[in-house]
Amino acid sequence: MKTEKKWLYGFILAALVIIAFTNPGSAFAQDNTPTDNDVNAIARQMFCPVCENTPLDVCPTEACKDWRELIRLKLTEGWTEQQIKTYFVEQYGARVLAEPPMQGLNLLMYILPPALMLAGAAFLGKAFLSMRQNAERSKISIENDKAAESAEDKYANLIEDEINKREA
Amino acid sequence: MIADFGYGIFLLSFILSIYAVFAAIYGYQTNKYTWVESSRLAMQLTFPLITITSGILVYLLVTDQYHVSFIYEVTSRSMPLYLKITSLWGGQSGSLVFWSWLMSSFATAVTFRKWDRDREFLPWVVVVSSVTLAFFVGLVIFFENPFEKFWQTFNGDVVTAMFQPAGSVPFSPPDGKGLNPLLRHPGMIIHPPMLYLGFVSFVIPFAFAIAALITGRTDDRWTRITRRWTIVAWLFLSIGLILGGRWAYDVLGWGGYWGWDPVEIAAFMPWLVGTAFLHSVMIQEKRGMFKEWNMILIILTYAMVIFGTFLTRSGVLSSVHAFAQSAIGPSFFIFIGVTLVVSTALLIYRWKDLRSEAELTSMLSREALFLLNNLLFISIYIVCFWGVLFPLISELFTGQKVTVGPPFYERATGPLFAALVVLMGIAPLSAWGHSTIKTLGKAAWKPATAAVIGLLAIIFVGKVTNIYAIIGFFAVLFTSFITLYEFWRAAYARSRAQKENLVLSLWRLFGKNRRRYGGYLIHLSIILMAVGIIGLEMFQTETQGTLAQGESLTLGEYKITYNDLAIFDSNDNRNLARATISVEKNGQFVGELHPRRDYFYESQQPMTIPGVRSTIQDDLYIILVDWQPITTEGATFKVYHNPLVNWLWWGSIMMILGSMVAAWPEKDPEPRKVSSNAALAAAD
Amino acid sequence: MQQPSAEPTGSERKGMPAAVQAVIWVLLLGLLALVAMGLKRTQQGTVQIGDKIPDFSLVFFDGYTYEGKNEVQLSDLQGKIVVINFWASWCIPCEDEAAALESAWNAYKDSGEVVFIGADYVDTEPEARKYLEKFNITFPNGPDLGTRISQMFRIKGVPETYFIDKQGVLHYIQIGPFASEDDIHTILDGMLGQ
User: Fold this and answer.
1) CB-CB contact of B246 with B238 (8 Å)
2) Which H or E element spans position C186?
3) Contacts A93 to B, Cβ<8 Å
């Protein structure tokens, strides 16, 4: 009895070691059967309308489970990732994708934020340029500002002075 | 009976806040200060009244009065007492009452300050806070009444109404439906109040800004008065967001803390604009610049607070967080419209008074860098706003629903966040008014060298090859070294000047310029959080597999073995499926984890609770995905390895400390200014 | 102590240019209009009784036909009562009404005056087929491709059933499963009797 058990443990251990070494990603991968990880790799890029805003790979509803099984089925049939995505878009609409496809009105989605950012940057840049022209004139005002600030924050200035002394 | 009383009191506070609005305007127009004083008292009186209403609601909750429909919706007999109390904000109507209560307490607190120097602000601060309060109280009274009761009509139908319909008898269900199980988490209990506190306290700076616009007193007085409110608002909002993230991490079971869900973003947007505001007001105080910009920012912050609440509660967005669809949408919309139109009109009217007193003088001056900071924050805000709005536009114009998910936001905001981290390091080195590359370089070369050495260590010892991670780590190292160096430099200088020891100097430094050094502490905490974010975003690995009893799954250094799965009913109406998993790290047994799936009978909702082994280095995060009818035959687990994610939570605790340092009340700075020489002498 | 600084201190201070003001107002009002439209859409719920139902077409699952074709166009069904049922295999309440729907279909199909159509919402084909087989559903069924039809009806969930009269106008909406087959008969007989 005891030796039998030992033997059993040894066997399990050996099996585990073999599994662990031969296939570090998943313990259950066979040659052409897609693993859970293969399925999830695609599922995580999709959203199911039943559980909105939760990626498909982690959505616990029954509908999403069926979807993941469908991905598995299609993978078994040898479909590529892109084919599967296209199929899902046909079946359930563009909202299954994590991002709207770059076409038509959706282009606005991608163009507007960078355009606004550039506009903001240009506005800032313009302010900086005009500031350069004033550089000469403002040298005086800097001194004034420094004086104003020191009255307000005398203590901080004391420290700054000390730092400057030390580092000069 | 007592419910009717609560409703009556609430009605009274509604009337009072409306009265406060008109009394304040009348008093301002006619220069009759007694009317303004009366409006202030009316405003203050709303606080005890709404306290009574909330108290009654809590009383109804804890005493299981299920004849009141709100109580029936959010509690059940099996819930523990603390959950019954916190159910106050577990449903739409109760949370609006709670919101009103916080609003009136903050408005009251602000009216208790000394107004001698700011008499002309008072009526308008009362007007803005009272209008906001009246709006929320009005929503409760007219649309979302938590005091409505069940009545059974003679043909057997059960209806809800405030007052007894003719020919009906009171009806009381034996037990309630119980709080949504997702909300029964400590993080979720504190998360909404923190967010509401943040929202509500941003109303105060907004009220002062509007007062400044109306009265034309557009100097920096209003920002000085509200400086602390702003920091407090920012702190609460930050805590609220972080707790929300923690809740998602612990309860939603998708291995992350932030899913770029529209409702999360709705709470994030006021934070982004508020943070920009928090920084840019400092330029106004120091240099008298960007007054108009600050006005825009605070108006936008307030608008985002209301807009975010609207998005969450009106059902315009569908989301895991969304409240049930409700009738309050149109009134919310009108309120937003009126607020935006009035604020914009005021802003345009006063535009010429808001022009700068000074001009930008150097590209590397601190004000210029602050402006860059604002550009970055606002860019992130634009990405978020557009991402939330676009699905709506798409559906309206093309009839096609689209999802704007994490990839879009991550790609768009990632570089901006990295730039912000670098800027956070450089900006404190620059001087107000003028800096040059030379002065900046002189201050930065030592920390920069240290950062490069650290980075090389990370690349060669840590074997990090991901280019984005390398950029991220450089930003983090550079900025943290600079910030620490700043502390050291100032403490060292002070200890030399004052002949104290270094620790004491550091301590006194905090006391002398709380806002600056509190701010630096917050910066350091952001760095810690950034480390956690980089860890999770760039180094998270995952695997999933179905295991029979005794089988194992490996992920990196970890090996997990499925031991057992127990399925049983708990005494609080749940069905639990709880797995036992033993975890080995590098062949060493390190403990057992229990991922589980709870099924709540009352609400027919499942909840996935991960088993997490959390260390400073990494988290091992296991989710029970599924199991076979005979559980020993197989159960499916999803395993995440989340490096460094704990830094995020520790960073947030440090952030709270830093904010407290920055916002800690000091003596009114103005009187001291007069005798600053004397104070300085005393300090020596 | 401090003077309110309402008076502009310098003549160089300018107000906001009118063009900029105009742009701001246009943007602001545009944004508000957009949100208003979104809000209206959420508030309006499903299509309403009395609405004329726009045309749509549905391609059936393999093995299902209507009048010999594997596709149906609503406009071709003028003069007939159309019962469109939204369902899904993962929807448990749908199972409660599946048998009743099939049995009602069998009662009316020979009259030629009533057409039942099943629209399968957000479902996978293998699961859907299992479901159809399990309940022996014979009336034409097809996937709601791209959720176009369900979006047009603005359904709130499944099951939902819409009764369209002979003029193509919505007559009755059933949210949730039918309690019994009798309910379906009552509605249809009422419509036929008109």
Assistant:
1) no
2) helix C181-192
3) 400-401
Please determine, for residue B274, whether its predicted confidence score (pLDDT) is greater than 90. Answer: yes
Interchain contact A91–C (C-beta under 8 A): yes
ipTM above 0.85, yes or no: no
Question: What confidence tens digit (pLDDT) does each residue in B46-63 have?
Answer: 999 999 999 999 999 999
| Interchain contact, C16 vs B351, CB within 8 Å | yes
According to CATH, the topology of domain C57-192 is Glutaredoxin (3.40.30)
Q: Which two tokens stand for residue A48?
A: 């199911």
Dihedral (C-alpha) C163, C166, C171, C175: value to the nearest 10 degrees? 10
Contacts with B289 (C-beta within 8 Å, 6 or more apart), sequence order: B283, B356, B357, B358, B359, B360, B367
Question: Would you kindly state where each structural domain of chain C is located, as residue ranges?
Answer: 16-45, 57-192
For residue B339, give both structure tokens.
Answer: 């607020």
Nearest to B12 by CA among B47, B37, B40: B47
Tokens of B53: 């209403």
Type of residue at B369:
L
Amino acid (one-letter) located at B411: R
Using one digit for the tens of pLDDT, what is the confidence trace for C8-21? 444 455 778 889 99
> Omega of the bond prior to B610 within 30 degrees of 0, cis?
no
Q: Which residues of C touch B315 (CB under 8 A)?
A: 42-43
Residue B159, both tokens: 């209806």
Q: How far apart are CA B425 and CA B476, in angstroms?
A: 9
Instruction: Summarize pLDDT for B89-143 with one digit per residue, the tens.
Output: 888 889 999 999 999 999 999 888 878 788 889 999 999 999 999 999 999 999 8
> Alpha carbon C38 to chain centroid distance?
17
Which of B296, B344, B382, B604 to substitute to test the interface with C, most C CBs within 10 Å?
A: B344
Q: pLDDT by residue (tens digit) across B130-177?
A: 999 999 999 999 988 999 989 888 887 888 888 888 888 888 888 888
Please, are residues B180 and B605 in contact by the beta-carbon 8 Å criterion?
A: yes
Q: Give the helix/strand (H/E) hosting B3.
A: helix B2-30
Residue of A nearest to C127 (CA): A66
Say whether residue B428 is in contact with chain A using an 8 A CB cutoff: no
Q: How far apart are CA B223 and CA B217, in angstroms?
A: 11
Domain ranges of chain B: 1-167, 180-402, 406-539+654-665, 541-646
Q: How many angstroms separate the CA atoms of B455 and B475, rounded?
A: 10
Domain boundaries, chain A: 1-29, 31-98, 106-167
**Which carries the bigger pLDDT value, residue B299 or residue B153?**
B299
| CATH code for the structural domain at A31-98 | 1.10.8.640
pLDDT at A17 over 80: no
Neighbour tally for C87: CB within 10 Å? 29
Closest CA to B358 of B347, B346, B366: B366
List, in order, residues 6 or more apart from B457 with CB less than 8 Å away: none
Min CA distance, B304 vs chain C (Å)?
A: 13
> What span, in angstroms and rounded, lies between the C-alpha atoms of B242 and B257?
9
Return residues 122-161 of C near B (CB < 8 Å): 147, 151
| Contacts made by residues B561-566, CB under 8 angstroms, sequence distance 24+ | B562/B635, B562/B637, B563/B592, B565/B624, B565/B627, B565/B631, B565/B632, B565/B635
Contacts for B421 with CB less than 8 Å, ≥ 6 apart: B472, B475, B476, B479, B526, B527, B530
**What is the tens place of the pLDDT at every residue in B561-576?**
999 899 999 877 788 9
Q: Is the pLDDT of residue B675 over 50?
A: no
A134 secondary structure, DSSP code: T
The tokens of B121 are what? 């602000």
Please state the three-class secondary structure of B20-63 as a single string. Answer: HHHHHHHHHHHCCHHHHHHHHHHHHHHHHHHHHHHHHHHHHHHC
H/E run at residue B546: strand B541-547
